[in-house]
Fold each of these.
Amino acid sequence: MLNNIVEKVTQRIIERSKESRKEYLSRMQSQYGKRVKREQLACTNLAHVAAAEEDKVKIRLKSIENPNIGIVTAYNDMLSAHQPYYRYPEILKEAILAEGGTAQVAGGVPAMCDGVTQGQVGMELSLLSREVIAMATAVSLSHNVFDGVICLGICDKIVPGLLIGALSFGYLPTIFIPSGPMPSGISNKEKAETRKLFAEGKVGKDALLESELKSYHAAGTCTFYGTANTNQMMMEMLGLHIPGAAFIHPGTPFRRAITDYAAHQIVNNTAQRNNFNPLCEIITEKSIVNAVVGLLATGGSTNHTLHIPAIAKAAGITVTWDDFAELSKVVPLLAKVYPNGSADVNQFHDAGGMAYIIEQLIAGGYVHTDVKTVVGSGLHAYAKNPLLDSTGKLQWESAFNNDDSVIRSKDNPFSHEGGLRLMIGNLGRSVSKISAIAPEHRYVKAPAEVFHSQEDAIAAYKCGELNRDVIVVLKYQGPQANGMPELHGLTPALTSLQDKGFKVALVTDGRMSGASGKVPNAIHVTPEALKGGNFAKIKSGDVIELDLENGVLQALVSDDEFSHREFTLADLSGNKVGLGRELFNSLRDKLSDSETGASLF
């Protein structure tokens, strides 16, 4: 039986989205089931489509009975999780030819690595890259010669961008194919400790680099449960992966088998077969709620409080932070994966992983099972683990739990509520990932120290100016101010202060990484400082109360005092040029607020 709150929130989303969802589905249904009539293209157009192909492919492309699959790839060599995609087009073309279809790379999309740009100027393009990826996906599919879509992407803004773009073509069957996580290196705890020691000046850069190289050491996603791996959880919850595909290592026979199976499935889902299964019927109000529930149950990245609303909007669905907050009150926390635990995603997967999480969420009535997925109707297929039998054939087995320290049952959760808190008060609305924060650190009342850049805050720390109880307030980090870069560079410094016994916290209109760590925070403050309001008017010395348990973010400043304070906009001219930022100024100005996804669309 479905949990009453899950049902209530779902119905509220359905009602709120009634007109926009109807309009979206009307657009999609006008194209339903139409096999691409390539013979209706002008002869020159079709010749261009087939020009570079082998004769056997050219013959198939002339016929509407042979589905042609468009591959949109985010391959590059710099991003470890995407490097394995180098050979995927060849693999997929071969597998799809065996299924009686054809496949072509429709286009490529950019794929930033947030790990490379953390703390660098380029991070100011990171969130905006999601919108560029969405538009590039649309351009890739605009030729109207494809009967289905394969999206190759894993990491932070890339999966949301691909999905937003694909939803414009929601009348086409679509599947996402991951490449998997890298093998485990040194523990995340050891890596974090070295970073803290470096921030304190106790180890040098050589020791830090050695630690980082041992952590990020092979092809695949980073092994902590940040935004990239939260994306993979989300794809399982949405039913857009082959069940259990998320956390299988790259370059293994197992990964090849599940990739081949995905190629088989996308062909099977086209209108030329008897299993037409368009993307717009998979992404629904119910599946979006399932994605939010998965985020809460696993303690996933706060970045998804931006991405899920943006994805939902692309499908005509409106989701708010109130929906996240209400679901968080009833959805149990079933996983402890770094940064809200010591295990990495490989240990999470080996313990039972997504199959066990989904099995328990189904058993507890926390998710909708009556949804469509790329493998058919119902979520139950995702409550099973894939394996290769002795003949090399894929099979699926019942879910299991091998380690109660990493994953728990619905009856014995790590917490009886999810890992996210909506923060409300006179500074605006914000969110916090409390699953990573120890109970003794969830209340801070201290004077504010206000900064307008991450660099200034770190400089103050290095000078010893923050060696006290303090709430660091970092303004002008919102979507329109500077593109909302992640502020992960603050984590080692703030962690060091906390470990010294000081009460510290961070309040910002910017983002933290999916690996935001153990320091209490209120992030994504909206309205952002650029828009004025009380958050823009906060001054150093003002006392702020941050109560994570009760969802309170309050400056102890009277309404009368705030009303008489003048708002002086900071000089943001330095955000407008350098490393390509000048090309994005007109886009950044149009980004929505954080609660609606910080999106152009």
Amino acid sequence: MTTDTTTDPRLMPRRALLSVSDKTDLVTLGRALADANVEILSTGGSAHILREAGLPVKDVSEHTGFPEILDGRVKTLVPWIHGGILGRRDLATHRAQMEAHDIAPIDLVCVNLYPFARTVASGADEAACVENIDIGGPAMLRAAAKNFTDVAVLCAPDQYAGFIEALQTGGTSLAERREWAAAAFTHTAAYDTMIASWFTRTAEGATPQTLPPVLMVGGQRDTLLRYGENPHQQAAFYRDGSQRPGLATARQLQGKALSYNNLNDTDAAFEAVAEFQAPSVVIVKHANPCGVASADSLAEAWEAALRCDPVSAFGGIVALNRPLDGRTAEKISQIFTEVIVAPEITPEAREVLSAKKNLRVLETGGMPDAAADGLSLRSVSGGFLAQTRDNGRLRPKELKVVTKRQPTAQEMEDLLFAFRVAKHVKSNAVIYAREQATVGIGAGQMSRVDSARIAARKSRDAARAAGKEGALTENSVAASDAFFPFADGLESIIEAGATAVIQPGGSIRDQEVIDAADAAGIAMVFTGMRHFRH
């Protein structure tokens, strides 16, 4: 038999069970229930707080006639609780069984769960983490959500106001109870996902690179965005519970609401600038860096990064790996910028930027560790792809000079800089750099030759904009994110004026490419590590 849900009965609770870990607004909810003559059942700390507020409360153990046992592990896992929640009021057989076993209906369940995630994040030992795995709470939430036709279920303090309004205006509607049921199932699913992920990560022999047989992904919606990449797409930003410095930790100090594209580009820029130790600036446009530089100061780094491609920098995202100072803020504010993100924004910089009312300014409170482990996910038809983060680091002893000419010390510094930038540029990627600054970036082309030529052409444009003859790529070095399948890509780089090249190597035609480098008298270094980014 099924319940007829075509009608929308408004139900007034007669009995409520309140047992919450987060005590926010608990007394407000309890007082509203008491004013409506609803009997309140409760446990432990929740009951204590309600009593202190002068509200009538009945202990669950008194209601069930069964004491809490096993250090509180078992207190609600009894028929008098779950029968009261799950019993269908529309079935005579259920009503008869409840009456026969002295099971009173429970019409409202308000439960939120032990703080498992917070306990793990605090660095607590395994025993403490395990003790903070809630068993009775999820069971009650799921039971109440399943029986939403007869029972209201609340799992978060921000739901209380809506429930209280319904309570004071005739009772909860079926639509409201269904909405709260969906929230409860979502809450318990996310909770179980966190626990399962923790067990997987901490299992014997597990490493950050372990990809489990079942991968569960959970997130809490933080912000509904106006639209996605395009106006006809819907979008939202979700938090995954981690505290990696960046979007999830950022505080927006000023400016318009962030869009989907703003968030995507800001993340790309901030992750890229985290690669560098010296004061550095990354300018991103459409998820690709269009200027990157490291220098003795942020102001100098900004000027060098902007010089690489001042046209693309217009309307871009600027990321910095040091607190943004007033002098640098003044320089950045001279061109139209969508977002500025930094670990800290100084008071002087905030004053300067306040004149740009629409400029979005984000302060993250720290820098992410570019070498940290983690997973990267991408949806595909019928599922998603998962891989470990590209946190590869070049080790000097693993580098191999394959040409007759060795790179100079300055060339080697610039080669390593350029290869680090290449990691954050869409493939095929070719990066020209000089004195720790990009002077040409070729991104996202189907041919590596085209990437090399586009970067060189943009470098000539940038030189003209700076009032210089030729191209900025003269006497630069170049990095390729993957090997050259033929010598033509290298030849384009040589034509652009590069004197040294860094690339992974590994092509069946490596020797042909090496011979072309030797013929031109340039140095070439193999890394043995590729940085595809699609």
